[in-house]
UniProtKB/TrEMBL annotation, chains A, B, C, D, E, F, G, H, I, J:
Name used for this protein in its record: Muconolactone Delta-isomerase
Taxonomic source organism: Modicisalibacter muralis
Domain annotation Muconolactone isomerase: ranges: 1-89
Broadest EC class assigned to this enzyme: isomerase
Catalytic activity: (S)-muconolactone = (4,5-dihydro-5-oxofuran-2-yl)-acetate
Gene Ontology biological-process entries: beta-ketoadipate pathway
Length: 96, 96, 96, 96, 96, 96, 96, 96, 96, 96
């Protein structure tokens, strides 16, 4: 089941550079593991921003909540969620 | 080059059913031709709405404008556009 | 899987009374059938408005889309959707 | 008398983990006591967020105020309130 | 139990003057009957607008819904509702 | 001359409890003196919030400004003001 | 007593030109009479729009309401009102 | 050439009183000098707020920018700007 | 003197195609004449929309108003205006 | 390929003057180098604000992201991006 999630990162400007670097590294590893598993299906940067557009493929709402609230950057992000489903005009098999 | 485009359809409630059906059929054909060509890369329905989330893969801004303004439903839609680019944490080759 | 859906009805003031009455009757029957099936779990009027707060229990996003877009009043409503899941502090078994 | 209440938690990122844990534990106990009493009728997590949707069953506006303003997380939340009442299409006896 | 209700009237500019006058007369009678009964406790015009601020004193949410949805101008108004209760600093006995 | 004023209090979460208690006590005394004088005509809590709805009866805009800007909580509040006047349908003598 | 009022005109595009011209002429006469009387103290066009910024000098809220609701264009305008008073740094005698 | 400028002051609540007093005194002197020169033509307090409505009479956009960005309170204000010009219905010679 | 102006066209969907074509042709001629004169300095389409971003170079606010309100599409557009001036970091002579 | 970018600077009021001056100097050098290269085509100050309107001429979305996210003031700015393309009514060769 697919969800579009948009995340905008708002790190406090006075966060020590070292702490920021550490969170970002943990976030990257966390994200890549989920991509490997096929649960984080797409991840794009929105050009000109510190934001991304992501497509998640999860079992249900509960798994979405588990994945998103587990993001190391979760406390520093504004997040919006849209549930997706197959569009009647889509010709792509995996756009379910 | 990728763009995320969100479209919300607002057909006037008093449009004759036949006219609406015709526009939607033309829209479907238009959309599927662009999907075939690889220019309309993804197309999802936003669940609980008359809206979609789409990913376009175009040459440049001008081609995006040509495709979007050519949509048969263009006069009846609210449209938002986000330019996308590769995310440094993405592991997927075609998420450029 | 649960979703909260808020619907605000905006009937055109010049819709003939008979037509409005007919749509509302169809909507009521449609809604009560889904309540009977357990898919429309709760339905409340928001006091002082022509709006409701609803809780749906569906298989997945696709079923939500099918039910909501099938509402006879769908072309006349503003609709917002929130995916729900179990809250770690809930003590109620069916608040999943 | 029913109210829908949506709460979004905004803990300051620099709150010490121990203090946050303590507030959350107090909040959980406070919430579960009210659920036991039947006053906090439903409690759901909004998937992909640090927010909840709740349904309260209280005597009157004053009791709602007493319960909500007594929440341990009250100073850290954005809260919206909607008064609910029976929907004419509802078939569920306790959706009053 | 008190509610603050703000109503903004949006009559279609092309409504025939006679029809508008009739609705307004019915609205006035409806409003004055409820004021007589003590249910519509205050009614003020917002200066420089076609809007009012009202205070209702009703049994519960259901009665508020019954009164507000019964307003002859209901289909032509934007309405917002705030539940009120006694303020701990109030010295006025009937500001409950 | 009447004004509706809505005030939402936003105390910084890290304000020492003693300081907050002192400001609130001063605010209460200030408010009750103005209520005694008939200038602060109504004061209600908005249920489920740290906000109030107030009706002021003042000589002119300048007196409104003097009273509101003199509130001990003024630096910590979001405030909106609506000038009121008699509604043609009001039957209450002092709703001028 | 001064009020700043901003008015944005939204004439329906299908209003017959003759009717529009007539309303605008009546509006102009109405406005100039009030300017003559000193009640409509300033009137400026907002450059690049069909909107104005006005300063009214009236007895009280009731007179503001009488003047503004009497505007021939009143049913076709979005209007916002701000009560003004003397600024402590003003050196201009009539900026009261 | 005239501009309407609205300024809302947002001083950090924890700014030392002495520092705030100093900035305000500098602001007052700065403002009164410009009023003396005829460049800051009107200055009103918005009643019930820490905001003002001002009318500036400047040579061009560049002078507006120089004056506004030179305000001692500039870093602490939300500012909106509207270019003004003569209204065809104005009868006042200096409302150009 | 420079202004950035953003215009979004909202033609009524039921405007006859011939009438729309005529207005657009007039608009194009009007726009190109002003571009020739150097008053409409830049004109870009916003990709994926029926909107443009324009830079005007005019004598003063009054000339901006004259040009913008004279646009054949003026009654059908949402328009926002930003006064521009030279940026201290600009190295381009005509970005004044 | 052109993009309009609007940037509003929000420096924390308590940033030491020296640190602010250093960031601004770096920003200026960074900006002027990109102007020299033809990538930052226009740069204007929005009069009455700490904001700018810029036009970038880049290879693709990825280069836009690289340039904007590399701005020394990037962590302190609110940024909005609009993709531009040639307008059919433009007569200026380089407004592509």
């Amino acid at each position: 089941m697919l969800f579009q999630v948009e995340m905008t990162v708002k790190l406090p400007p006075d966060m020590p550079a070292e702490q920021a670097a550490k969170i970002k590294a943990t976030e990257k590893a966390y994200s890549q593991k989920l991509q490997d598993q096929g649960k984080w299906r797409h991840l794009w940067r929105v050009a000109g921003s510190y934001a991304n557009v992501s497509i998640f493929d999860v079992e249900d709402n509960a798994e979405l909540q588990k994945i998103v609230s587990g993001l190391p950057l979760f406390p520093y992000m504004e997040i919006s969620v849209k549930p997706l489903c197959r569009h009647p005009s889509s010709i792509r098999d995996d756009d379910r």
